[in-house]
Design a protein that fits this description.
Keywords: Membrane, Transmembrane, Transmembrane helix. The protein contains 4 helices and no strands. It is mainly alpha-helical.
Length: about 110
């Protein structure tokens, strides 16, 4: 469980970092097809990485609510709690975007 929590953090960092790094290369005076190509690159690489992070993060963060599972996973120390706290913050961000997507798609 601890490895999945760490993997979720690493995937999120890679996805956000790659997206930020690529968008820093876009010049505001660049043609629109350059900006569209950069957007496609971010969608192809960053979006699946963030989706993998969400898939790892959401179930494991909720499963660690059980103190017995936290003890079995070795999450009862300071670093374990910091990883878990960071993943809680990511969980709320992911849930916000999931609910926003559902609201936009179904026009609720």
């Amino acid at each position: 469980m601890k490895k999945l929590q760490q993997l979720a953090l690493v995937c999120a960092a890679i996805g956000i970092g790659f997206g930020w790094l690529v968008y820093q290369q876009v010049d505001t005076s660049a043609p629109s097809y350059n900006q569209g190509g950069i957007g496609m690159l971010v969608i192809i690489i960053s979006l699946p990485t963030l989706l993998a992070s969400a898939i790892f993060n959401i179930p494991t963060t909720l499963l660690l609510l059980n103190p017995r599972r936290r003890l079995e996973s070795g999450m009862e120390n300071l670093s374990g709690y910091l990883i878990w706290l960071t993943n809680w913050l990511l969980l709320f961000v992911y849930l916000y975007f999931i609910l926003l997507t559902i609201r936009v798609v179904f026009r609720i």
